[in-house]
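User: Just a sanity check before I run the rest of the batch. Below are the structure tokens for the first item. I only need the designed sequence back.
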């Protein structure tokens, strides 16, 4: 995997780390509830691991398809899936269910896996990895490197954001200064799908 791909994967990880729906808001809420900075930090690794599990599962499914089907069919299929998911997110109003705040690490990881899957987190990583690697071993190695790069960047970003919000800004900053990341995410998915189809 080349350096450009790694930078893109890290950038996508940072983008996910900035998005409150990907977990830092949940970590901050747990910290505020327990009045503990440690609770914020304790919540972040399971959240990132759940996210990484979703990304890795998506990459594994696409890798299996690449081994079983002609490359052009997989490329157009991925393009349609990514862009279609972006259109669906653009048209659908998201109503996140309220989640109980007494959770352990496994529950946090499971919640993060489901939330990341619902947001199509792994789908955004697929276009970066689609034309790299050949053969089962290369695809498996590529998927692990891509997931690790993405997850480490997400962990670094979400840790900084969670601590800044918890220590300095408070969650009220979301009402004053936050822009619609769900809209940006939907548009980015559509753009990534179009890029894959045209590349």
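Assistant: Here's the designed sequence for the first item:
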């Amino acid at each position: 995997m080349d350096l450009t791909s790694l930078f893109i994967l890290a950038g996508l990880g940072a983008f996910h780390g900035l998005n409150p729906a990907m977990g830092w808001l949940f970590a901050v809420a747990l910290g505020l509830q327990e009045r503990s900075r440690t609770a914020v930090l304790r919540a972040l690794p399971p959240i990132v691991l759940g996210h990484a599990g979703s990304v890795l599962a998506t990459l594994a499914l696409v890798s299996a398809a690449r081994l079983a089907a002609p490359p052009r069919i997989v490329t157009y299929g991925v393009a349609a899936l990514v862009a279609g998911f972006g259109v669906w997110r653009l048209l659908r109003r998201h109503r996140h269910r309220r989640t109980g705040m007494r959770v352990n690490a496994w529950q946090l990881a499971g919640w993060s896996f489901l939330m990341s899957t619902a947001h199509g987190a792994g789908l955004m990583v697929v276009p970066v990895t689609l034309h790299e690697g050949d053969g089962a071993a290369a695809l498996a190695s590529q998927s692990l490197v891509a997931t690790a790069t993405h997850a480490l960047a997400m962990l670094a970003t979400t840790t900084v954001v969670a601590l800044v919000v918890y220590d300095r800004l408070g969650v009220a900053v979301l009402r004053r200064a936050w822009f619609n990341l769900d809209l940006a995410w939907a548009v980015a998915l559509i753009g990534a799908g179009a890029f894959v189809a045209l590349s």
